[in-house]
User: Which sequence fits this backbone?
């Protein structure tokens, strides 16, 4: 019996060797595949964890950015309104002085200057702060995932973020002076008695923007963001010098310039929309002092019938208003909550800029660049 088994094994020796080799190879391949699968799963789990952690850190940075922007935008707006104070002129006009014509001329310049400075200042503030805070956020994320000396400490953070304080004070004053020159060139020739249309108001803002974009003496305010941020700063630290130069490269890039110009144009469009509402609100249909009864229907105001729409379509582009009557209500858009949503122009522009998708994307791109190890 044993000899039979022995003979059988000898006859099929080659087959057993081949079969064993095949199964052995399969076992090794299976073990290797399982090991690689475990490594891949661990790698993917680690990658997912890092992505989740990075996403949470970015969202935290974004919340901090929005809160900082809202706080500083309020400070900048109040600074502009104090600097360009129309209330003093209004108070003098209420006393019916002999120089009231000169005061009205001064007021028309100041109102348009106010709106334009708010538009440019809030846009510049939003762009620079988003760049700064996302650069800081990127550095802090890298510090949280790697060992060794931190890339940026709390003292450097404070010093870097304080750069924007110059813009809130002297920077806004410089910007106001430059914009006032452009406003005078456009608005001074317009008579207070002139009947002005919405299209002409839009043309005024467009002309001011064009003058500022092509200003060869003082320079385009958008292209001077770096000037408002760092030109006044003394740099005597290598790390600080590095982060400032990185910020300058970002703010001077074509992408950031394009986004900043886009936000300024969008903000002017928002202002024009609010002025359009003023034209519509001041429009009054032809009135009659009595009621007419025609075929058992009541007709009022010479136009509206019972059951008809109480809010007829008004083509604001065909309406006009004396310039002198437009100025006070435009000033109220800045000072009082007469804009849509019971708000005012500074708050409306701040809200719009905070929610602006292009600015959010800019912040995300900057964070991504500086958070990569």
Assistant:
């Amino acid at each position: 019996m044993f000899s039979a088994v022995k003979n059988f094994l000898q006859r099929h020796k080659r087959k057993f060797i081949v079969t064993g080799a095949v199964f052995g190879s399969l076992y090794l391949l299976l073990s290797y595949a399982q090991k690689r699968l475990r490594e891949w799963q661990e790698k993917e789990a680690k990658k997912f964890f890092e992505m989740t952690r990075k996403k949470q850190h970015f969202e935290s940075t974004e919340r901090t950015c929005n809160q900082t922007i809202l706080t500083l935008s309020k400070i900048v707006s109040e600074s502009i309104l104090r600097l360009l104070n129309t209330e003093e002129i209004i108070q003098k006009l209420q006393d019916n002085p002999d120089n009231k014509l000169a005061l009205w001329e001064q007021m028309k310049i100041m109102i348009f200057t106010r709106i334009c400075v708010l538009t440019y200042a809030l846009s510049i503030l939003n762009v620079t702060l988003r760049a700064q805070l996302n650069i800081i956020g990127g550095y802090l994320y890298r510090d949280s995932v790697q060992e060794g000396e931190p890339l940026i400490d709390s003292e450097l953070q404070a010093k870097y973020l304080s750069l924007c304080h110059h813009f809130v004070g002297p920077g806004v004053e410089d910007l106001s002076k430059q914009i006032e020159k452009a406003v005078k060139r456009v608005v001074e020739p317009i008579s207070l008695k002139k009947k002005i249309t919405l299209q002409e108001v839009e043309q005024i803002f467009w002309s001011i923007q064009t003058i500022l974009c092509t200003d060869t003496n003082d320079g385009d305010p958008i292209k001077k963001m770096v000037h408002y941020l760092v030109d006044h700063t003394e740099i005597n630290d290598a790390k600080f010098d590095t982060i400032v130069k990185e910020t300058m490269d970002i703010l001077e890039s074509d992408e950031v310039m394009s986004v900043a110009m886009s936000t300024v144009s969008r903000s002017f469009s928002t202002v024009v929309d609010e002025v359009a509402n003023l034209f519509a609100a001041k429009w009054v249909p032809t009135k009659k002092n009595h009621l007419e009864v025609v075929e058992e229907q009541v007709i009022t105001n010479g136009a509206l019938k019972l059951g008809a729409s109480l809010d007829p379509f008004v083509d604001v582009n065909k309406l006009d208003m004396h310039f002198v009557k437009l100025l006070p209500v435009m000033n109220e858009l800045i000072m009082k909550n007469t804009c849509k949503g019971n708000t005012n122009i500074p708050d409306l522009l701040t809200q719009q800029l905070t929610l602006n998708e292009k600015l959010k994307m800019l912040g995300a791109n900057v964070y991504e660049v500086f958070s990569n190890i």
The chain is about 70% helix and 5% strand. Confidence is low (pLDDT under 50) at residues 286-310. The beta strands are 195-197, 292-294, 297-300, 304-305, 320-322.
